[in-house]
Structure formats: C-alpha cells, structure tokens
Amino acid sequence: MRHRKTLYLFIIPALLVIGVFFVYPIILTFNMSFTRFQGIGKATQVGLKNYDRIFSRDRYLEAAWVTVFYTVIVVTAMNLSGLFFAAILHRLPMIRNFSRAALYTPSMISFVVVAYVWQFLYSPLNGGINVALTKLGLGAFTQNWLGDPNIAIFSVAFTQVWMFTGFTCAIYLAGFAGIPEEIGEAGRLEGASSWQRFRYLELPLLGPAITVAVMLTTIGTLKTFELPYILTKGGPDGATRMLSIEIINNLFGQYKFGFASALSILMLILVLFVAFIQNRVLRDRENTQ
C-alpha cells in the first residue's frame, strides 16, 4: 500500500499539468462556444447560434472537407514515402545513419522558414521549380503552383510531405529494428526475393509502427495551420482554407471569440473521431495478423 501511494505521488504533477494546460482550457473553450464575445466586456449567451451558423453555411463545411481531404493526401503520401525510404535504408546499413539524419533534418526546421523557402520555389515568375523545368526543356510543365485552385492544395501538401517524411521514416526504421533477423534469414533460405520478404514477412510485423505513424501524422495534419496560412492564406478561392485558418481568422481577424471557440470544438471532435476510428481499425489489423 505504501508503495502504491508513492506511485500516486509521482503521478500527481503530471495530472496537474494535464488538468491546467489541457482539460481546463477545453472546458473554457466549450463554455465560450455558447457565447458572443469580442475579447473585452461581458460575454453574451447565445445558445447554439454559433453551431447553427457553422452547419448552415457552406463556407465552414467546405473548410472541414478541405481539412479532411488535405489530411488524406498528406498522411497517405507521408507514410508511403517514409515506409519506402525505411525499407531501403534497412537493407543498406552502411548509409543508414547518415541518410536517416538527412531525411529527418527538414522536420527540425521552423514551419515559417520552410513555408517561405517553398513559397519562393513555387513562384510562377522566377521560382526555382519553374526555372528548373524551363532549363531542362520542360517549360510546358511550368505551373502557377500556389495560384491555381486545382493544384494549390497538392503543392501545400507536397511541402508538408517533404518536411516530415523523415519523421515517419524514423518510426518505420524503429519498427524494422524490432524484427528478428532470423525471419529475414529464413526468407532468404527459402529463396524469397527482397519484395516478397518485405510484403509477406516484414510488413505484417510492422503493424505497431504503422499504427503509431498513421495516428501521429493524422493528428498533426488535421491541426495544420502554418504552411497553408503562409503559402496561400487559404486561397486561391478557398482551395486551401482549412478549419485552423478559419479559427485564426475569426479569433484574431474579427475578434469573434465565441464563434472561433465553436469552430475549435468542432475541430477537436473531428480529431478525436478520426483518431478513434483509426486506432480501432489499425489495432484490429494488428490483432488479425
């Protein structure tokens, strides 16, 4: 009993931090979402009007759809590219450490720095990408990468994939490190090719790593704000306008604290719902393999 009480004493500081910096702000945000408040003066209770406004206007439903669509693109590309590089580096131990560090470096750079660098590269006039395509005789492929509503979201998504592929690669390399070497050796003795060993031996054993990588990248991408805001400000024509941008615009642009709080609660529910479904599906996948 004394040992158990000692353990509880060590847990208390963590619970206090979670309560003060996580639970309490969520409760305040939830309460404020039922008010009209501009940051000064007294908040006015408006009931469900903020939520009614969200679901009765296409603008905010479209922002939710753009957020989900963007997340699907980024999470899929980020995990496939991370798994691809991890599978290669797992088979090339001589360059593994150097390559892993090189791939991980972009994720340590500030979002703001990355966004401004890629904003220059995407520039339609003298941007690095269009200039390179022109020099290579591929001028027909030059685009207004951030100004075309049809490709802007893919351009922003590519920037985030480039930035965090090394992060997912590190997770999958850790998963590969946990696979017993005897399994790969047995596959080689049976004459299995490198692809066959990956598909039928390694991939099923990477279940826990896949769960962690997909969950972390999904939650992080759903909350994305800096890259689309700096690169496009949510444009062109709302093509990259996500819930996070709507929240910031209403909060700091129009000082609608109550409505921004309602959008934040909607975003929280979306993140929790997607995370719950993903966790359920991925855990079931692990148990069936």
TrEMBL record:
Keyword set includes Transmembrane helix: yes
GO cellular component: plasma membrane
Gene3D superfamilies with a match to the protein in the record: MetI-like (1.10.3720.10)
Membrane topology: Multi-pass membrane protein
Keywords: Cell membrane, Membrane, Transmembrane, Transmembrane helix, Transport
One Pfam family from the record: BPD_transp_1
Classification via InterPro entries: MetI-like, MetI-like_sf
A GO BP entry: transmembrane transport
SUPFAM superfamilies membership: MalF N-terminal region-like, MetI-like
Transmembrane segments: 7-27, 63-89, 101-121, 151-179, 200-222, 257-277
Subcellular location: Cell membrane
Domain ABC transmembrane type-1: 64-278
UniProt xrefs under PANTHER family: BLR7065 PROTEIN, INTEGRAL MEMBRANE SUGAR TRANSPORT PROTEIN
Family label: Belongs to the binding-protein-dependent transport system permease family.
Protein name: ABC transmembrane type-1 domain-containing protein
